[in-house]
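Why do we bother with a discrete structure alphabet at all? Because it lets us treat a fold like text: something you can write down, compare, and reason about line by line. To make this less abstract, here is a complete entry for Cora-domain-containing protein. Read it the way you would read a sentence in a foreign language you are learning: slowly, and without expecting to understand everything at once.
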Amino acid sequence: MDNTAKVEGLLKQLDAQRDAYLETFSKVHELLAQNLATTAQTKFESEGSPESPRSPRPSAFRITTGSTAEDRKQSEVPSTLQTSSASRATGEESDQEHDECYYVQLREHLQNYKWDFGCKRILETVVDNPVRLQQEWLFPNTPGPADDRSHYSGYQIFDVGTDGAPLPVDVTQVESVTSKATAIWHAIKDINQPSKERKAVGRITTLRELSPILFGAVHLTMYRSFDVDELFRHLVDSESSSSHVHRAFSNDSRQQSSFVFSLEYFTILGDECKPMKWQLADRQEQRARHHIPITRCSSVIALSLSGKPIRKVRNPGRRVKNSSSYGHAYDPWAPWQVLNLQCYPDWKSSTDVHESSRNYVNGPEAFMVTLLGEYRDAQRRFDDIYRRITKLITPSLNFMFDASLRDALLFEDRDFTFSRRYFWAFQTLGIINDSIKSMIDAYDDAFPASVWDGTHKTLWPLLEPDAPRSAFYRRKMASLKQQFEAEIANLRALIDENNARRAEVRSLRDQLFSGTSVLESRKSVEQTEITVQQGHNIKLLTLVSIFFLPLTFVTSVFGMTNMPEGAHFWLFGVVTATVCVPFFVLIGSLNTTRGMKFWREKSGKRRDGLNDQGTKGGEDGNDGQGEPVTRSRSAQEGITMRLMKWGTGKSELPQKMPRR
């Protein structure tokens, strides 16, 4: 016990010394960077050079060390990669050296990191291609379409200051000179450079349809704040929507301080927009006129809170290990980052979710606003699919006036066009309903009433509920709750509309089957009539053949060479009449129902009489009293008599029982 206490004391001292060292180091770094920036700026002004474009995103940052309530009131800046302020101020060789240093870090990260299955699928064309990693420039250095899909990418990045207003990170100059991929790289690689610009306490990063190399860049810049491996798995896995916000008892500290929402549903492929290799999508090159190309889309919204935990919570679970018996809650007012990765190949992502006119109280509010925008985007995509399916199954107005069109809709063709269409529409609407239900369930599971009130034990608890900012935060969360409830109600109404459309599709399919069945019945009746006619023809041919059969027999007999050579025509006639007349009578009677019944009864009685005669028992077929006795009955009586004699001692038991 004494050793344990000593170890804990030493660890506390070590933590305190480490925090003091980090804070001192951060301050020294800020002072040096400011001096360098001032020197560089003075040099440029003295030389009369035009002011070089400042970095849209500052780089130096202050690491969070405060843990008291007073320290938490001060907005702190999020931690990320550091950059040289001199390179940002001059834009000369130091800038190139700075970029090359980052490229080296990215190459080493892509080569040496132990990627899991989800990351490998996303980064397949990068990590499995050593030649690609040895190129001088990892990102396309020219504007326009690129082979790595970077021309599909989109981005929106905001720095949020102490006033809560999001300021867009402008990298249009970089994009115009190099490429979109390079601009995204410059926007996400650093934050909070010590300069005259304001310090950011929050960062909102929205990235759409990234190329594989940009996914690697996101992993490098974000993996200290987020479990990026987990985020990539959510993108790759074709599962239902899910929430991962109640993770205070996770063993990974990044998961304890991060809150993740994964949305999985469907959208219609945009024109000239191809899905990624790991996305489930309709990849038909040639599509029919009524074909609807659908792809599965995915999005991840994550919030990371920096700093130390503010509350230690006991795990109420019964089956927990010692390492997870306690969890931690994080301060909702801590510096924060919101990361939104969108994989929607449809060109329909909203760009008005975050605007400079908004004001965010803290990171949870920015996270909820981003999530609300994703739910609205999902509803728009669901509505689009619903309209397209409705158009697919609904006939045009010419249906009322064009008989050929009605016949085409009522009776199936040889390619089963409408059966295929109705089957696809019915099943697709059912799958979409399941996707909508999973989104609703994820929301209901993640945000109980205590979250909106700030009284939840682990999810964004308010340690100072009576403070003005806490009251203001609750009011804004109440407004967000109403908006979420409205979107959830719209999704539930969409489920009802899809179910009604499915019922209509089922009715159309049943009517199609009924019409096709009637048509097949008519065809069957026609085939039956043809078969009956063929039967009459065969019957006629058979009668003609039968008529000539006895005549052929008689002429064959009288045509033999061993017959008398004398001409006896009367004998030929008598034989012909004797053979043909009974034959014709028999065949004629058998050809009628009455005659067939007559001969059947006669042949049946004859057969029964032969069976009775063949089963008579005894020598004369009588049992002594004039009654017929069968052989089986006689054998049974004989066995019985012999057993009775043996029982009275007049006979011995036979060595072998007779067979029955």
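What the structure line is telling us, in plain words: The CA atoms of residues 13 and 555 lie 132 Å apart. DSSP finds 20 helices and nine strands in the chain.
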